[in-house]
Design goal:
- The chain has 378 residues and is an alpha/beta fold.
- The protein has 13 helices and 14 strands.
Length: 378
């Protein structure tokens, strides 16, 4: 099947390169739109305001979402009509999309998913909206090419440029599923990148803060992302360790949602897991680490989050975001830190972390409708 799908994509790309794009069904009158977002977990859930804004501007819109195969269950939280799990276009996924469209799409939004642009020649669509494709090979298939921002903008607002600039100034809507039960905190210690995994020293510090407040603790990480369990056992009292609920990769991400929305706070470095918790509305303390604050440092829709980071580090020297290059971008995607002491994580102010935990825990004592806290940086 993989060989067949690969051959299909090669033929599709050859056809797309030769295809002089003509808008199909120019008079198409449909309330169905296609969103192609074959992104990782965090990027996918940063689309929550985009989807909310789309629904606000078109209340009767029906959305078909194409996402990564491994995120099909968790993507259901985004409240779309149908989900087509297909990281790359295949004959079967295109057929399924066309069957669901009921005659075509008023728009297809390809959000940093350029590998899907060639498929647009086989999908009835009135317009294809996208930022430029990094390689430029299939830009001719974009009927509305959106300019990538020349000045700093948060990642949750960038997709809104595809809709209407008026949405940039609105109070952005997240999923807002938070329903805290008792006193429970999640410490997310894992990440795909080793540079975003929490140190034993910091884990111990946070455990002590929460334990002193009689908060029940859940520690989460993906498979093989936390291998220091025995070391942690030696650093904290047995009666504290025995009460910790460890979720270290045995469950899929969507199975952890009940624990996320019932927690009073989530603490961790900037990872997909924390973008999910923010989208769900759970108060979240984000330690930015290697991430650039201007992109990932929160916004008005993250009203229950605090973001802490070390600004202006010259070692954040990657100038691209999803393959698109701009001077204002200063990110870090290194696997190993070349700077002694890893300043983006090692220089975090632990007292400020403690104060931020206190602020966010206070939110669980208030009604959701009264909560409003701006993000902070350091």
């Amino acid at each position: 099947m993989k060989i067949k799908d690969s051959l299909f994509r090669n033929i599709l790309e050859l056809r797309a390169k030769r295809h002089s794009y003509v808008i199909k069904n120019e008079n198409l009158n449909s309330n169905t739109v296609l969103i192609v977002a074959t992104l990782f977990l965090g990027d996918l859930f940063m689309l929550a305001p985009f989807i909310a804004a789309l629904k606000k501007s078109k209340p009767d819109v029906e959305i078909i979402l194409v996402c990564r195969d491994d995120l099909k269950e968790i993507a259901s939280l985004l409240n779309v009509k149908h989900i087509v799990p297909s990281h790359r276009p295949t004959s079967s996924s295109i057929k399924k999309i066309n069957k669901l469209s009921d005659g075509g799409f008023t728009a297809a939004y390809c959000i940093f998913s350029g590998r899907w642009l060639p498929a647009m020649i086989d999908i009835p669509v009135k317009k294809v909206v996208s930022f430029r494709e990094p390689s430029g090979r299939f830009d001719h298939l974009i009927t509305e090419k959106i300019d990538f921002p020349k000045n700093a903008m948060s990642a949750i607002k960038i997709p809104l440029l595809m809709l209407d600039n008026n949405h940039l100034n609105e109070n952005l809507i997240m999923l807002d599923s938070w329903k805290p039960v008792g006193g429970k905190a999640i410490i997310h210690v894992g990440a795909r990148s080793p540079l975003r995994r929490m140190s034993i020293r910091l884990i111990t510090y946070i455990i002590n803060i929460l334990n002193n407040k009689a908060i029940n603790i859940v520690i989460t990480a993906g498979p093989n992302e936390f291998n220091n369990l025995e070391k942690l056992r030696k650093l904290i009292p047995d009666n504290v360790f025995s009460r910790i609920d460890f979720e270290l990769g045995s469950k899929k991400i969507h199975e952890l949602v009940p624990k996320i929305i019932s927690s009073s706070i989530v603490i961790g470095f900037d990872t997909g897991f924390l973008h999910l918790t923010k989208a769900l509305g759970t108060p979240t303390l984000v330690l930015l680490g290697p991430s650039q604050e201007e992109i990932y440092g929160g916004d008005d829709c993250y009203s229950r989050s605090i973001h802490l980071g070390i600004p202006n580090l010259t070692c954040r020297d990657k100038k691209t975001y999803h393959g698109l290059e701009e001077d204002w971008i200063n990110n870090c995607t290194k696997v190993d830190c070349p700077v002694e002491g890893m300043p983006c994580t090692g220089n975090l102010d632990v007292e400020l972390i403690g104060d931020s935990i206190d602020k966010l825990l206070d939110l669980s004592l208030k009604t959701k409708s009264s909560i409003s806290i701006k993000h902070s940086s350091h």
